[in-house]
Amino acid sequence: MDIFQFRRTDDAGPQEAVLTIGNFDGVHLGHQALIRQVVSEAREMGVRSALMTFHPHPQSVLRADPPPMITTVPLRLRLFEQLGLDAAYLVPFTRQFASKTAQAFVREYLLTHFRVRKLIIGFDFHFGRNREGSADVLRRLSVEHGFAFEVFPEVLLAGEKVSSSRVREVLSQADFAGAERLLGRPYSVLETVVHGEQRGRELGFPTLNQVPEERLPLPFGVYASRIEVDGRRHDGVSNYGVRPTVEGSRPTLETYVFDFDRQIYGERVEVFPLRLLRPERKFPSLDALKEQIAADRDAAQAYLTSLDAARETVR
Fold first, then answer.
1. Highest-confidence range of 4-18, 241-255, 264-278, 282-296, by mean pLDDT?
2. How far is CA 97 from CA 14, 91, 100, 109, 128, in A?
3. Which domains does the chain have, with CATH numbers?
């Protein structure tokens, strides 16, 4: 899959495409169904399948209290590729971009750049100044400019609407089974490992530190987790939060990986939180924190062992 950091409407890319546009945060079952439709129709028409999405998320620019992001950008792009897309475009979202009229957006992006053959959007998609780019407006513009247009219907799962807001809701309750049902895969965080303050190493529990660009939908707390490094799964215990004992501030995901001592700074690692063990809290001393981390490790090991045993029983 080609990935483009879209800066100008004359950036290189597919000149004819079946295109979809949206935020696609979560890449949940509804998003997946829409993207598969784009891929299928593009193949039938002999053109490329393309997706346009925005970074940062529009709500992060337009709202003082934006919702947390379900899926980090690296994971979102990986999932797009797995769904068979030929090209994904990351468009920088700014207030200036948000002020474009629907007519200007169609002219500058869909016609000049893509020469779009068909546009498929989700049932609730709006864009442009004051969200004026509704399905009715796009349908009229598609007739005016000669491209096909389709609104992809809402996807239901056992009568329940599949939506990013619903995924955020279940994750805010650390309901990972509920999230997996809506996502069609286990919830995970894919981010680059960065240098930390080495406090975990000083305490005897060295951690892999990841700082997502945007807030995750998880409660601050400690999780039993599994970690994928270079295609291999490891057990561990993760803390997501602001580390109040050491006066941290920016939300960070720190993971102590059992029986793992490699230095992998700069590599992307996928963390799968599986169970909330306890909320994050401030401890009176580093010794008290060290004692609690050991207890968290034991609790995580016990849970992950029981999880494996249960799966073996099912087999």
1. 264-278
2. 21, 9, 6, 12, 8
3. 2-160 (3.40.50.620), 188-314 (2.40.30.30)
